[in-house]
Amino acid sequence: MDLQHSAPAVATPAPLAEEGALYLRIAQGLAEAIRRGGLARGQRLPSVRETARQHGVAISTAVQAYHWLEDARLIEARPRSGFFVAGKPAARLPEPSFTRPLRRAHPVCVDVLGQRLLGPAQARDVVSFSSGTPGEAMLDAERVRRTLVRAVQRHRGLLCHYPEPHGHVEARRALARYALHLGCSLDPERITLTAGCMEAISLCLRTVTRPGDVVAIESPTHYSFLELLQSLHLRALEIPTHPRHGLSLDALQLALDTQPVKAVMVVPTLSNPLGSCMPLAERRRLAQMATRHDIAVIEDAVYNDLVFHDELRRTVKSYDTSGHVMLCDSFTKTVAPGLRLGWVEAGRWTDELRRLKNVQGAQTAVLELAVADLLSQAGHSAQMRQLRSWAAGRLDLARGLIAEHFPAGTRVSDPPGGFLLWVELPRGLEAQALQLAAQAEGILVAPGSLFSAHARFKSCLRIGVGADWSERHPAALRRVGELARAMRGAAG
Hints:
The chain is of the alpha/beta class and 492 residues long. It has helices spanning 22-35, 48-55, 59-71, 112-118, 141-154, 169-179, 197-208, 223-231, 249-258, 280-293, 350-360, 365-376, 380-405, 431-439, 472-490; strands at 75-78, 82-85, 106-107, 127-128, 191-194, 214-219, 235-242, 246-247, 261-266, 296-300, 325-330, 342-345, 411-412, 420-424, 443-444, 446-447, 460-464. Among the domains are: 1-92, Arc Repressor Mutant, subunit A (Orthogonal Bundle); 106-118 and 140-376, Aspartate Aminotransferase, domain 2 (3-Layer(aba) Sandwich), CATH 3.40.640.
C-alpha cells in the first residue's frame, strides 16, 4: 500500500503548555488507552455527553477532547453512529530499508552542514524539522523554575563551596532510584555526574579507546556521535541497523570476529535517527557479547523515558554481570535541555573514567540537587506520560502529512515514541537536493547523509517533530512533499 493512500492529518494538537486544560487531560488519557490496547481498533467510544458526565465537565470540553483525538488520527467520527477508535490500514506502511554492512572501519570526517542544520540556533523565520530535541512548549519550564528556586533557597550554602567531583551524594542516590525504572540496581557510589549525556559518552570513549581505534556504531547513527568520533580521532565501523529492531547483532558478531573493535556505541531504545528499539532478548545477548569479547558497550539511554512500552525502557546495562556496559543518560530530552546535567555508570572502568573527569571539574551541586528533586516529585511520572502522549500525537500527524503529500513509494518509520521520523524517498530522489529546495523556502529538514561517516542514506531524510510548532509547520511539511513530487516528476 502506497503512503499517499493513507488518511491525511488535518491539524496540530494543543501544545504541552496547555496541559492544565481539562479537554487535553481527557484526550491524552484516551490516547494512552488506545496506544496501549485498552481501547481496541474499531471500538465505539462513549458519546460526547457520556464522556462529559464521566469527567464532570461541560459537553463543549468533551467535544474539544474528541476533536484533539481526531486531529491525532486516533479516532474517527462516523455519521449518525458516533466516535470510534481509528483502524489501521490493512497493510502496514512501508518501512525504510535495512542497511547493508560496510566491511571496513574508516576515519570520520563530518560535514559542517550538519552543525548548521541540527544545531540549536535557528532563525525565527525558519520552519524547522531538523531538531531531535523538544521545544519549550513540550516541557514544563515553570516546574523546573520552581524547583531550581527551591534548591537555591534550601542549599544556598553549597554555592560557597566547591562541589564534590563525582556529584552530590544525594543526587547520586536519586539517580540510583531513578535507574530502577531502567531495570538497573546501581550503587550510588559508582555513579558519576556529567555536563550532559554527550560528556558522559565522551568520557567513556576516552577511557576505553586511543586515537586510531575502531568503534562499532549503528548505521545510521546520531550525528553528534560522528562529531565526537572525529574529535577523538577514532575510526567508525558502521553496523547495519534495522528500522524497528535496532543494531544487527549478527553483523556485530561478524565485526567482532574480524575487526579490532574496542567499543560499541548503541542507543537500544528509540535510536537516533531511526527510532528503533532493540528486543529485550537482543539486549541480553549484547551484554553477553561484551563480556565474551572483553569490550566496552557504551549505552545511551537518553530517549528511554519517551518510549510507550515500559519493558523497552530496560537497558542493556540491566543484563550486565561483568561491568562491560557503560550506561550514559541525561534529561535534556524530557525535562529541560538547558540543565545540561547527565550521568554515567562506567562499570569496571569507573575509577579510570573518574580520573579523567577530575581534570574537567564538576557541576554545580545546587543544580544536581534540583534535578534530583525533579525526578523525585510525585508528578514526574505523570509529566512523562503526558510528554509521551503529546509527542505520539505529533508523530501521528507528521506521518499522516507524509502519507498524503510525499511521492508514491515513500517509506517512513513508525517508532514507538520519541520525536523523530526516518523517511526514505523513492529511488532516484536525492534527499540533499530536496533539503536545498526546502531551505530556499525557509524550511529545514535533515538529509540522511548526515547520519553516516560514509555519506550513505542519500535518499533519506530525518524529520524531527520536537521543536515548537505553529500553524506554519503542517503547511511546511506538505510543501516538502510537493517539492519531492515535483522533483520526481522532473526526473521522469
